[in-house]
Specification:
The chain is mostly beta strands. It has 4 helices and 37 strands. The chain has a 22-stranded parallel sheet that branches. It has a 10-stranded parallel sheet with strand order 3-5-7-10-13-16-19-23-27-31, covered by helices on one side. The chain has a 3-stranded parallel sheet with strand order 21-25-29, with no helix packed on it. Helix 2 links the parallel strand 1 and strand 2. The longest helix is centred in the N-terminal third of the chain and has 23 residues. About 50% of the residues are buried.
Length: about 450
């Protein structure tokens, strides 16, 4: 065995030992709204009652940026897990807490805990997992109605990182059948807000339903993957900072247009520089997302969203690949003032009789498009005039058969990676497409 092999083995042994030590020291606590008590000790047999009470009683250790805890005697420490059992748990509000290991607040196995909203202002290594989040579930009116149902990292500096929401079912209300166009603008909260401060926050495998905006990524290096954004009235997902990754999400069913009283130009995925609108964005990846304007042709108040709209650059070193977009709008995939970007292996299709058929386009507002590669895409048309020197090859007209093949293949891949039924919502990521002739 070479000295390099010996060093590698020693490194692996050290890593396994560290993981084992961390696991051995971790503790698990429980909250049970039905059987728990504020006087419990958090054990399986004597659980606390709700996570809101646990937080207000300072039973979870909260450390500053220097790692020093404000409440050193709290039983729940970094590395620990708090499991929530079925029932109403109030709200989760953590102003700040910087952990060297993840503190996890999660659904106990087989349980469906409910909270009104989640907010972690700043901190590091918090995981919120498997909860149902909706103010509509509150047994009485909440002190305030949230603008976003989950907010992570809206305060703090670059030290704030790795705030994670995963496997949650997040919605304003379940039933919107009586909503008017005005209601769709005014009533729903937005879903997930990965805030403007810190970096590296994560939204993974959440089901976001009946919201204004679905998921906003507002800090550098955020990851948004495996989520479903269903029934939204503004934008499905927004990417607005350098180094973000948006991949393997399903975005579907856009509501209300200008004719219904909403002037927002809706996008499945929109990219722009947050708080500025125009300006350089770098190193964003948009990969393997499914965008469908509406699954049912009898959807009331339906709108025609743009697919992947990145209009305000310069956009530097973007990768847009393997997405399947089905919209009744001209903009299937558009990158404005793109520089050194790659658009490859995407499919843009419309299954509706509307005149607008989605294209793939390199556009510009500042005459700065250059050095791009566009290859192996399927769409109704292509426009690369903004970058005459772009490397383009094997871009072909899309057919319905090709679209169905690509949609099925990507859908199967996403189901295999994240699950056919969402674990908290218990809903499929895609419903069978309806071609009802009913026109609202």
């Amino acid at each position: 065995m070479s000295r390099w092999d010996i060093a590698c083995v020693r490194s692996m042994v050290t890593m396994v030992s560290l993981i084992a030590a961390a696991t051995a020291s971790a503790a698990t606590f429980y909250c049970d709204p039905a059987k728990g008590s504020p006087q419990g000790d958090g054990s399986d047999q004597r659980p606390w009652r709700t996570i809101e009470e646990v937080l207000s009683s300072k039973l979870i250790q909260l450390c500053g940026k220097d790692g020093k805890p404000a409440n050193a005697n709290a039983p729940v420490k970094p590395g620990d897990v708090v499991l929530l059992r079925s029932g109403w748990h109030g709200v989760i509000h953590i102003a700040g807490g910087y952990n060297d290991q993840f503190i996890t607040i999660a659904a106990d196995k087989g349980h469906r805990p409910q909270v009104g909203w989640v907010e972690i202002g700043e901190g590091r290594k918090w995981l919120i997992k498997g909860l149902t989040v909706s103010p509509s579930l509150a047994p009485s009116a909440l002190p305030r109605s949230p603008r976003e149902l989950v907010t992570l990292g809206e305060r703090g500096g670059e030290e704030s990182s790795e705030l994670v929401v995963e496997d949650c079912f997040i919605y304003s209300v379940l039933d919107t059948s009586a909503w008017s166009g005005k209601d769709w603008v005014q009533k729903p909260a937005s879903g997930i807000w990965l805030g403007r401060h810190g970096k590296g926050h994560i939204a993974r495998n959440n089901y976001v339903l009946n919201t204004r905006f679905g998921i906003n990524l507002c800090a550098p290096e955020c990851l948004c993957e495996g989520n479903v954004v269903a029934n939204y009235s503004a934008d499905g997902i927004r990417a607005t900072r350098d180094g973000q990754i948006v991949q393997y999400n399903v975005i579907k069913n856009c509501y209300v247009s200008a004719a219904d009283g909403d002037d927002n130009h809706d996008d499945g995925i929109q990219v722009f520089l947050f708080n500025v609108g125009t300006g350089t964005l770098r190193d964003i990846t948009i990969r393997g997302n499914i965008i469908i304007a509406h699954e049912r042709d009898d959807q009331l108040l339906r709108n025609a969203p743009q697919g992947i709209g990145c209009f305000d650059g310069p956009l530097v070193n973007f990768t847009v690949e393997k997405n399947v977009v089905c919209v009744n709008h001209w903009h299937g995939i558009t990158l404005g003032d793109a520089q050194g970007c790659t658009i490859q292996d995407n499919t843009c299709f419309s299954r509706w009789p509307d005149r607008a058929k989605p294209w793939i386009m390199l556009g510009q507002k500042k005459n700065q498009a250059s050095g791009n590669t566009v290859r192996d895409n399927l769409a109704h048309s292509f426009n690369f005039k903004a970058d005459p020197q772009a490397k383009t090859e094997n871009n072909r007209d899309v057919t319905e058969a090709a679209f169905n093949r690509e949609l099925s293949g990507l859908g199967t891949f996403i189901d295999g990676k994240f699950g056919k039924l969402h674990p908290a919502a218990n809903r499929p990521r895609l419903e069978p497409v309806s071609t009802s002739a009913h026109q609202p």
